[in-house]
Amino acid sequence: MSQSIEQPADGTPGRTPARAVPTSADVARLAGVSRATVSYVLNNTSAVRISEPTRERVREAARELGYVPHAAARTLRAGHSRMVLLPAAHVPIGPLYSRFFNDLQWALRRLDYTVVQYGSVGLAPEAAARAWAELRPAAVVSTGEVEVTPEAVEILRRSGVKAVITIGTRDADGTHSLVLDQPGVGAAAVEHLIATGRRRIGVVVPEEPGLGMFSGPRLEGARRAAGAAGATVVPLPLAYTEESAEELAARWPGLALDGVFAYNDEYAMLLMRALQDAGTDVPGETAVVGADDLLLGRLLRPRLSTVRIDMIGGHELAELVDRAIDGTAGGATRRLLSGSRVIRRESS
Amino acid sequence: MSQSIEQPADGTPGRTPARAVPTSADVARLAGVSRATVSYVLNNTSAVRISEPTRERVREAARELGYVPHAAARTLRAGHSRMVLLPAAHVPIGPLYSRFFNDLQWALRRLDYTVVQYGSVGLAPEAAARAWAELRPAAVVSTGEVEVTPEAVEILRRSGVKAVITIGTRDADGTHSLVLDQPGVGAAAVEHLIATGRRRIGVVVPEEPGLGMFSGPRLEGARRAAGAAGATVVPLPLAYTEESAEELAARWPGLALDGVFAYNDEYAMLLMRALQDAGTDVPGETAVVGADDLLLGRLLRPRLSTVRIDMIGGHELAELVDRAIDGTAGGATRRLLSGSRVIRRESS
DNA sequence: TTGAAAGCGCTACCAG
DNA sequence: CTGGTAGCGCTTTCAA
């Protein structure tokens, strides 16, 4: 074959010769056509008509060489990518989110986007934004693990990112913001407790870092709801360990609380267990309400009352992303997701 | 300014003018130097000495323009990327994995790799491999959610991927394989049950798709261990729903099992709850063993016995990835991670 | 110490 | 219907 003449300098001479990775030029040579034709055939370019025999020759050559197009080259040439970047969460928020994530990814891929999660643990907002911007994604969909500051948005914008979508506790300007009504979650729980006759209500505040952006607003909402009804709210710091829960349960009698909103179902389980072990009757002495409606909660005894949180569907969000990228969605929008409601079981 | 002459065709004429994204050429122009100099300065190229005033001018210009390098262009020019691709799991495997994931990402970033998770839900092995290959990552680290077939490995190899690392239930050839000893997990559980006097042992097999690659080998290991001791193993299909668990619990007496390995702690909780509700005494009539050592298990009553699974550390793996990329780790290796041991609590 | 220029792989224009 | 070719943004060799 003619290629053998320009045997390329081999990268790894030691072991398997590892021929250089095939390019569209290699495909063209093997098929006896031009690189342009290869591009037309492999991309099914409709603006140009290639004879069927030629198409087949090209496809066969590509198959034989194991040709895979080079995304970076395509991006460079096109001037834009079809990548949607999701800053990856450092805290797994449970089945609710993971289901949502899967739906989103699946829907975006149907729209021909390449979905990529970028781990951004421990990066400052601007540093993270720069790292994301290097990849020149078409859109960034942030689910709240890294704060999206105005500076970050500006960095992304200037790097050609077409759309920034945030899902979080408050709107980030210049973005399409989906605001989860966290205060509403706390308020729903507390209103329910009050409606069932409770007056002194504890609100668990996780000590784990990274949950503050959720727990703060939930506490705030709880306070508002309690204030409106003349009830009392007591913040209860709690780490996700048995020791911390035991310690809290030990001083429970002194706190004289008749109800508690435990942040979510997992903390609720932790706390409820500790309370029961310490001899506190649930819901007799203290009612407990979690959040997220995990299967877990139905397995506890008493069955756990919970706040089911309103969440946007993955498919719906994918469409928003798509419209935001092609400009149809306008410059910046804000949408409040507030539909949290209590599911009463046996613990309240 | 001179740029105003060649005002580029604006992408989105409607709203904010959105000036074209700045390139290193723009930085060079603003700083009054050549593009080469810009590259030298911003990459701290040591082979070349640039005067301090020039460096400062370049950096200032970059800052002013909000310049962010274009990863695709860099990759294209360099002929290789520093991207490590992790096919993202479609099933959240719990805190054990998520901790591992974070460590791995963090460690890889310290080694100056760009870590990217690629959602590959529902793709055939070869299709997934091609999708990954388009990004020309330096390495692919598969944690077992998509099967890595020999064909897939070949596709990746031919696309210049330097290293393929698999963590899974068996070794994939041509890769660096870390084999989790799943049979060992089942065996450990069953041996423990036998040692504590059980003879007819159920093994839960989750009906959820995607877990088969774990549950199958665990069942196999359980069978081997039972066979060696003359005990009996009964496979128990179970979906992760209350109904499925209730149904299983209802026919429990007929099964006449005195022990059960419940796949993991979550299924164990589900089953144990259903058994207790149906009036079966745990561990009196039936002993229950889970796996993964979740905090959850310690909160149950009786406290759940569990198999703690041996796992490689994220940092350690990051180093393997690094050596595999630069060739130091050799062509293909295999390492068995077998160190599972039972933590006995109260349910067995 | 700095600049000019080639070229990575690909696509889209324009000629033939 | 097919081929030639420019050029996306970047790094790096070679020359000045």
UniProtKB/TrEMBL annotation, chains A, B:
- Its domain of life reads Bacteria
SUPFAM superfamilies per UniProt:
lambda repressor-like DNA-binding domains, Periplasmic binding protein-like I
Key words, A-Z: DNA-binding, Transcription, Transcription regulation
Q: Where is the HTH lacI-type domain?
A: 22-78
Q: Which stretches are annotated as coiled coil?
A: none
Query: One Pfam family, short name please?
Result: LacI
User: What InterPro entries does the entry give?
Assistant: HTH_LacI, LacI/GalR-like_sensor, Lambda_DNA-bd_dom_sf, Peripla_BP_I
**Mind telling me which CDD domains this protein's record contains?**
HTH_LacI
MF annotations from Gene Ontology: DNA binding
Q: Where is this region: Disordered?
A: 1-22
Its name, as the record gives it, is: LacI family DNA-binding transcriptional regulator
Organism for this UniProt entry: Streptomyces omiyaensis
